[in-house]
Design a protein that fits this description.
InterPro entries: NAD(P)-bd_dom, NAD(P)-bd_dom_sf, Polyketide_Oxido-like. GO terms for molecular function: oxidoreductase activity, acting on the CH-NH group of donors, NAD or NADP as acceptor. By secondary structure, the protein is of the alpha/beta class. The protein is 28% helix and 23% strand. The protein has a single domain, classed as NAD(P)-binding Rossmann-like Domain (Rossmann fold, 3-Layer(aba) Sandwich), CATH 3.40.50.720. The protein contains five helices and ten strands. Strand 1, helix 1 and strand 2 form a beta-alpha-beta unit.
Length: 209
Amino acid sequence: MKIAVVAANGKAGKLITNEAVKRNHDVTAIVRHKNQTEAPQVLQKDLYDLTAQDLKSFDIVVDAFGVWDPADMDLHESSLMHLVDCLSGTNTQLFIVGGAGSLYVDAEHKKQLKDTPDFPKEARPVAVGMGKALERLKDRSDVQWIYVSPAASFETDGVKTDDYTIASNEYVENNEGESKISYSDYAIGFVDAIESGKYNQVQISIYQN
């Protein structure tokens, strides 16, 4: 498949890019600065400057953009909506590197992880910002989107185990009572989800068994 990864130099974006290259997909890294990935093609351009013309040839566009400064939380929503507008009415699938805060902790889907008492206060601004972007995304039936949440503990330096599950939009703990996933396993599961071709307009999650 022809895959473009927006913000490919980021922690998740880089691993997803390299995993897709490893599997012999035709990958383009979309970056603002010098490419730091293994992608054979590079488009050096700011996300907000991307156009429908830039993205029209891709089967998959991966949105790996993220910000953590509390003052920039609105960028989660505006950046995602810009990509959605670029892909509106096309057959290109938009896979989003999401957050865990929007996972539901009840079967009725009334309460999300970010609203539980033990959710880390320092992570809440990001969770709220990403949650608002996801709610806007759910209103867009004109785009083939897939929102991919990690487990609650998203471990930058976590061990690659190759032992993970792709699940629904509900919070899940493994047999040890943990909800975690390494960036490495997340990237593998992310590309697995792309290759499966079975998801559309849905939030999924990836957690370590």
